[in-house]
Specification:
By secondary structure, this protein is an alpha/beta fold. 30% of the residues lie in helices and 30% in strands. It binds S-adenosylmethionine (SAM).
Length: 306
């Protein structure tokens, strides 16, 4: 053991404004950085630190500078500048600083518990339904307000026997929660192959792999999985511009009496997205919000504006 080379890690830290959390997390993941965590104290949920771990040997200073530029590019569309990036060098065995250490069982809503797959179900949360999640490099640790908004809305939705479609499934957390809450079947898709893999693995961890089918792609891939059927419930937690682009395809995914839960948008993006959805025949309700994030509930409207 004494002869084995010591692996060290760069720990990147920055305190992002809420609007940037998601984009920065995606950017890190799209660059192949798999160890990413959002750290916060339960009593201060809005003061959050984004952390990422990079093997020291693969990330010399010029590579790290390029990474910071790539992150700065994510801030520009929001008219924001990137908060200062802090770098800390840590040895492999410094477990106290490692990413998994910051991930704790996380109660959500009235009845759910997001449980890191490597931890035991804590007795103080014995009454909660555990969702075992190992995020790998996919989005969906459940810490993001938009995921929480969707989970809380799922709890309040009648799901018994429902067929659910999860567009942009990330870690699969929403589809897995829907099944845990009584849905009989779920289909899911994501344009990110790592998310597709994570969803499959998390479905297996939760013992629902047979009820959850996942495909690589967007709305077309999801529709193909549905094999001519339409879902009772559509879940879609993606950024507002993508929701807007996907709006014409929701119809093919949901049965006429179906409900859609859409998140990933900021409160000030509600109005334009609402108008866009109404043009496609949807009645839209702002169902909940958290911080600056919104959750929309859509249903087929009687009156279609063309
Ligand atoms: C904000 S994450 C949501 C993940 C998970 N559903 C949750 O609620 O935590 C959005 C996911 O949508 C995926 N995505 C982005 N654009 C997409 C598109 N056009 N079609 C399908 N998935 C997309 C991303 O790869 C990412 O995994």
């Amino acid at each position: 053991m004494a002869d084995s080379p010591q692996l060290s890690w760069w720990r990147l830290e920055l305190d992002p404004p809420g609007e940037l959390e998601e984009s920065l997390t995606w950017r890190l993941e799209s660059l192949g950085i798999q160890r990413v965590a959002l750290r916060y104290k339960p009593e201060e949920p809005h003061r959050r630190t984004l952390q990422a771990w990079l093997p020291e040997a693969d990330w010399p200073s010029e590579e790290r500078e390029r990474l910071v530029v790539a992150l700065q590019d994510m801030a520009e569309p929001f008219g924001l500048s990137l908060p200062p990036v802090r770098w800390h060098l840590q040895p492999e065995e410094d477990w106290a600083l490692s990413w998994k250490q910051h991930w704790q069982p996380d109660p959500v809503g009235q009845s759910l518990l997001i449980l890191p797959a490597w931890l035991e179900h804590p007795p103080e949360h014995a009454g909660r339904q555990a969702l075992l999640i190992d995020p790998g490099s996919a989005f969906g640790t459940g810490s993001h307000p938009t995921t929480r908004l969707c989970l809380e809305a799922l709890e309040q939705t009648e799901l018994q026997g429902a067929l659910v479609a999860d567009l942009g499934c990330g870690s699969g957390i929403l589809a897995i929660a829907a099944l845990a809450l009584g849905a009989s079947e779920a289909t899911a898709s994501d344009t990110d192959t790592l998310a597709v893999r994570a969803t499959g693995e998390n479905a297996a961890l939760n013992g629902c792999a047979e009820q959850l089918q996942v495909a690589h792609g967007s709305a077309d891939a999801l529709q193909a999985l549905l094999q001519g059927r339409r879902a009772d419930l559509l879940l879609c937690n993606i950024l507002a511009p993508v929701l807007s682009e996907l709006a014409p395809q929701f119809d093919g995914l949901m049965q006429p009496a179906g409900v859609g839960l859409l998140s990933g948008l900021l409160l000030d993006q509600v109005e334009p997205l609402q108008q866009r959805l109404q043009q496609h025949g949807w009645a839209v309700e702002l169902a909940a919000d958290q911080g600056r994030w919104a959750l929309l509930r859509i249903q087929r409207s009687e009156r279609v504006i063309t």
